[in-house]
Structures are given as C-alpha cells and as structure tokens.
Design brief:
473 residues, alpha/beta, 14% strand
Length: 473
C-alpha cells in the first residue's frame, strides 16, 4: 500500500468525465494528496485537456470475455429481465438488439428461450449465476495483472455496473485485493442493467429508493456496502461559477435581448426519429400565446446527433428557432461520449436564464429541477415514425421516471391540443411547480446536488481505510 492513496478511475464510456472530472472530485482528491490515474478507452489530448493537469492518463486495457461466457451472461440477463417483467417492470431498455443475419437471430432467440426457462426455476438460475461468477474469476489475465502492478491503485472507481470488457480487469483487481467502487451515473442502470455480476466493494447510489431497488434485485449484495452519495453528474448545474452574463449567453445563441427562452432538449435521433414534428408543434403553440410576450425556442441538439439532419431541417423550415449544438465529443463507432468544459458553462447558463423546458421525458428533468426550471413533457405520438420504445408515452412510464410522476416535477401533456395551455401556465406561473421540483431532488438524489462530491470523497476514504485495516491484520 503506497503512503498516499492512489485512485484508478476507469473510463470505458466517457460519461465518467463529467461525474468525476468536471464535478471537482478528482481535484478534491489531488488536493488531499491522492494520486489520480484515469484509464480511458481513448486516452488522447482531447480528454487530457478536460482534466486537472495533475491527473495521469493512460490507455484502458479492455478485453473480451470469450464466446461461452458472453452467452451465459446474455442468458442470465434475459432470465433476470423476464422475472422483473412478471413483477411489473416496464421492461425499459437502452436499445433493442436486432440480429443482422440468421445466425445472430438464432443466437438471440436461444438467449430468450433459455433465459425465460431459467426465470421459472430459481435453483437453476442460482447455479448458472455461480458458474458465471467462477468463469468471470478465471478471466483475469497476465496483461491486466501487469497493468494493475504498474498503476498500483489503492482503489478502483467506475460509474457503470455492466461493461463486459472490464470484467478481466476487475477480476484481476479482485485477485490482488484491490477494492472496486461504483458510483452510479444514472437511475436507468438500476432498471436496464439491474443485475450486477461483479462483487464491488462499495456501491454509491442516489437515494434510499435506489438503494432498496439495487438490493432487491441483487440479494447477494451486503446492505452495509451500499451508501447514499447522490450523483456528481448534477454538480455542474446551478453553479454561479459556471454562469455567463445573460447578455453574453444571448449573444452566443443569437437570441433577442429580452425574449423568453424555452429550451427543447432534442433526443438521440434513433430514439425519436424526425423530432422536428414536435418542435414545429411547439412553435405553433407559442405563436398563439399573447399573454407571455416574445418567446424563442432554443433547440439543444442531442450530443449523440452526428448527422446534422435535425439542425438542417429546422434552419430551412423555421429559421427563427435557435439551434444550439453542444460541445461534446461523440464517437459512435467506439461508443465514446463526453461533455467538454466549455459546454458546462453554456448549458448551466442556458438553464439558468431559461423560462421553461419542453421535450421528451428524460434525465434533463432532474437538471431542470436543480436549476428550478418548469418542465413540460410530451406524452403523445404524432403521425410519422414511432419512437424507439414504440410510443413516446413509454419514456414517461419507465421505472426510472417514477419519482418524477409521483412528485409532479414535470407536467405531462397527453395531446397536441393541450400543449399551448401547459406552456402558458409554466411561463406565467413558474412558482406553481417549485415545491414539486424540490421534492424530486430530495427523493431522487437523496444528497443535495452540490454535496455529492463530499459524499463520494468520504466513501473513497472509508474504502481505503477499511482495506488498510484489513490488510494489517
């Protein structure tokens, strides 16, 4: 054990940057004398420029798990999902896997068949899970062991529970007695990836409800290892130190000096195809509102929108709409995505000066609650291509959105004819939903948004202290 603690943070996706880097967690640890190493899937200058210069950046060793283990993991996931479905889960997924040829279709069908069969037999599911755990332990490789020797971490940190390509490295860390800590990045991971197949030393969750849900789905997890830490992802919203003067923001957006700004956060193109249908509807609804003065729509493009189609259509169809492209890195082929420093300031400022937010149900609702911005969610379909889950309403009905529904932190509009009235109410009486937004933050985040870094630091200090005590016995 080194004299000063050392953190190895794994970046397989890029979302870790905002939660751990932009939030100030790394800087806090460095100021406490820690050494911080980031192992990233793409360790280039673009990433390094977003981090505290004291952070060491290296390539992340990713590895396959082998065909047999991959099939066992997929089958157990299907079994778990089927049991959850019978218990009333919405069945929400990040995306549907579709076979591109008959071999893939046959393979996916076998996962469904055997997974459903396992779901009806608890002893068989438990036996298969033990086989999975044993197979994962065997995936530790000499390459991963050498990587851990060279980085010499006291603790490993990550924010997603399920990246199969990390299992060999995590298995090697388990062999060496290096504790791995997960601080959950999104509520969706407890819904879409609820089954945890690696025993983390500590789990940081948003709230008591998230803790209960994680333990319900994974009864083998020791409840004492699960702590409330909130989420550092929201640490970048509602901050005065990341706020542009209003005139500067409006100049950057080319917005009118005194217009009221209504933000429309666009979805990923594959989630809601041809989303301009809804933006046109919003434009027409605002046109008929005389009581709210001059209003401008700011469409914030989705960071994962790389084809530029939506921006092109809007600029040709409705040039009065402001189209704002976020400054994110997005590499679709390698599934690598992160927010750059400049966009933190722009986005925080946009929410601060916005009068309302209209769009599909999403995590943006939590960010708007932090910034105290009224939210109107669309809950109806328009003619044209369907949303990825089959209907827009399914975003609202998803398990991870339950606390939004219960607190009333967002208003659901269920028909096109009701959109104008909902927006007008939000613009004229923004105070009506303020208590609901506060309740959402209390219930969903558990920890006050700007205290999440403190909670994360405390959890890491406790983990290292506990491991030091155990090793000295």
């Amino acid at each position: 054990m080194p004299q000063s603690p050392s953190l190895l943070c794994l970046f397989p996706l890029g979302s870790e940057l905002r939660q751990f880097g932009h939030s100030g967690l790394f800087t806090r640890l460095l100021d406490l004398g820690w050494r911080v190493v980031v192992a990233a899937k793409i360790a280039d200058d673009d990433l390094k420029n977003q981090l505290d210069p004291r952070v060491q950046v290296t390539e992340l060793p990713l590895a396959g798990v082998g065909f047999g283990l991959a099939q066992l993991i997929a089958t157990l996931d299907k079994s778990h999902a089927e049991r959850e479905r019978r218990l009333g889960s919405s069945g929400w997924q990040y995306g549907k896997v579709v076979g591109r040829n008959w071999k893939q279709r046959a393979l996916y069908a076998s996962h469904s068949f055997w997974g459903k069969s396992l779901s009806f037999c608890a002893p068989a599911h438990a036996f298969a899970s033990r086989c999975e755990a044993a197979a994962i332990r065997r995936r530790a490789s000499a390459r991963c062991a050498e990587f851990l020797r060279s980085t010499d971490p006291s603790v490993i940190l990550l924010n997603v529970p399920r990246v199969d390509a990390l299992l060999p490295l995590l298995s090697a860390s388990q062999e060496r007695g290096i504790p791995a800590v997960i601080l959950y990045h999104t509520w969706k991971d407890v819904v879409a990836q609820g089954r945890v197949n690696f025993p983390f030393a500590r789990y940081g969750v948003w709230s008591e409800r998230m803790r209960a849900e994680l333990l319900r789905q994974n009864p083998a997890i020791d409840p004492r290892s699960v702590s409330l830490t909130g989420c550092g992802h929201f640490q970048c919203v509602g901050r005065q130190d990341l706020l542009l003067p209003e005139a500067e923001l409006r100049a950057s957006l080319r917005a009118k000096p005194r217009s009221r700004l209504v933000v429309f956060p666009a979805s990923a193109p594959w989630l809601v195809p041809e989303e301009e249908r809804y933006i046109r509807l919003l434009k027409n609804a605002l046109r008929n509102l005389d009581s709210v003065g001059d209003v401008q729509i700011v469409v914030r493009l989705n960071p994962m929108d790389s084809d530029g189609r939506l921006a092109e259509v809007l600029r040709a169809d409705a040039p009065e709409i402001i189209v704002s492209k976020p400054d994110w890195r997005w590499d679709r082929k390698r599934n690598w995505c992160f927010q750059r420093r400049s966009d933190q300031v722009l986005y925080n400022s946009l929410l601060h000066y916005a009068s309302a937010c209209v769009g599909m149900p999403s995590t943006v609702t939590v960010e708007c609650a932090v910034a105290d911005v009224p939210v109107i969610n669309i809950g109806f379909d328009l003619p044209g291509p369907a949303a990825q889950p089959g209907a827009v309403r399914k975003f609202w009905d998803a398990d991870f959105y339950e606390e939004v529904r219960q607190t009333g932190a967002a208003k659901l509009v269920q028909s096109p004819g009701n959109l104008a009235a909902a927006v007008e109410e939000a613009l004229v009486h923004p105070e009506l939903g303020r208590q609901s937004r506060h309740r959402l933050l209390e219930r969903q985040l558990g920890i006050v948004p700007h205290a999440a870094v403190d909670a994360a630091v405390q959890l890491l200090l406790e983990t290292v202290k506990s491991e030091t005590c155990r090793s000295s016995r």
